[in-house]
Amino acid sequence: MGIFEVVSIGIVAAVLVLLLKDKQPAIAYLIIVLTVLYFFIFLIQYVNEILQLVTYLGEEANIQSFYIKTILQIIGISYIAEIGSNIVKDAGLESVAFKIELVGKIFILILAIPIFQSLIETIINLFPMS
Amino acid sequence: MVGDTSILFQIAGIGIVVAMIHTVLKQMGKEEFAQFVSLVGFIIVLIFVINSISDLFEQIRAVFFFRG
């Protein structure tokens, strides 16, 4: 079971960080970062399977691959922004973490622009203007 | 499954050894060497972390951005 491994690694990392925190705070912080990265690498394999399901469903439903691709990119950006902001927040830089999240949100908005445009065009075509 | 986690213990070991050397050098009155040892230990650990970050970014890129 993966969950037991994850929990035990988390506890071990917490103990090691407590051990090192007052002597070498930088190395303790890097242990935290490494643990977070391990968990995300662990997570990404399962996310991969779910995304294969999503792609398969989209192909079956004849959705244009462009939309699926955009959605996947949005999810990827949000994951990376989340990782970065969490790691920076652990170091105590709240404002930098907030800016990373902001940049992620803006990039997501930019990626969503073509979909939004096509939605607007569809609505305009529904109600033909004279 | 979760990858090779012995690296956590490895890094904690590096940290403890570096802290010990730091303390000993400080007791001997060599502040500069103590700082230097601390810096080198940090850089060694940083290399591990950088490798891991690169690994994660490659995985995310492979999963999310080149398919669909």
From TrEMBL, chain A:
The chain crosses the membrane at residues 6-21, 28-46, 106-127. The keyword Protease does not apply. Coiled coil: none annotated. Signal peptide: none annotated. It comes from the Bacteria. Keywords: Membrane, Transmembrane, Transmembrane helix. This is Stage III sporulation protein AD. The gene is spoIIIAD.
From TrEMBL, chain B:
It comes from the Bacteria. InterPro entries: Spore_III_AC (IPR009570), Spore_III_AC/AD (IPR025664). The chain crosses the membrane at residues 6-24, 36-54. It holds the Pfam family SpoIIIAC. Keywords: Membrane, Transmembrane, Transmembrane helix. NCBIfam families: spore_III_AC. This is Stage III sporulation protein AC.
